[in-house]
Amino acid sequence: xxxxxxxxxxxxxxxxxxxxxxxxxxxxxxxxxxxxxxxxxxxxxxxxxxxxxxxxxxxxxxxxxxxxxxxxxxxxxxxxxxxxxxxxxxxxxxxxxxxxxxxxxxxxxxxxxxxxxxxxxxxxxxxxxxxxxxxxxxxxxxxxxxxxxxxxxxxxxxxxxxxxxxxxxxxxxxxxxxxxxxxxxxxxxxxxxxxxxxxxxxxxxxxxxxxxxxxxxxxxxxxxxxxxxxxxxxxxxxxxxxxxxxxxxxxxxxxxxxxxxxxxxxxxxxxxxxxxxxxxxxxxxxxxxx
Length: 290
Hints:
Elements: H1 2-16, H2 20-25, H3 34-74, H4 83-107, H5 117-139, H6 145-150, E1 153-154, H7 156-159, H8 170-173, E2 178-179, H9 184-207, H10 212-231, H11 237-263, H12 269-289
Antiparallel strand pairs: 1-2
Helix pairs in contact: 3-4, 3-5, 4-5, 5-9, 9-10, 9-11, 9-12, 10-11, 11-12
């Protein structure tokens, strides 16, 4: 019984150390204290950072949508009679995408890009895919990361009228140079997505009776696949994950080239697409089973 009293007494003495009156008085906090002022400044900094992050997410979404529209436009080249007209229209669309990237560069002025990279990486990957797809159609080669970054240097002579920065020193920044650099990871992921668009381009070319394009795409994809194979598992997780999709696209293109080379002379051109689509479905089923 003495032990119970002892334990009860201990609990009582523990509560006595924090009287109710003192706890109630602690609610009245001085808003002008240095601690509260410091936390208010932290709150303002975090709110500003969150608002900037949300603006970058919206810009990245716009960049993704416009880049996809450019890719859809470029796919019309396989069936359009005038290729130069579509390339000119695609360049206009890409200029509009670069205007959005200019706004991203303005938002990141004076900031560490890697802190906001997750907000813009999706849009940058889609832009790399669109630019590299257009470059391949023009030159049948892969655009380098340096060439892409050179297109993302903005000066006031080209974009001075569109520069609308909400900051107080907008007049000083208006005469500066804005730039945004594509990271190597964004470049690699954009090129990996490019392979899927080239596979679709190959399918459309076969359907339109174009025999040369599938072999050009096949040779190009082999070189890209060899390059990614050198990276292997040492690169970022996203790159190694897309290597499997790249291998699938290469297999489908090689299958089309095989059908054209072996049976191209005996199958009418308007039936090549049907034969190729059937073989593609068989490959997908076999890969799904394995």
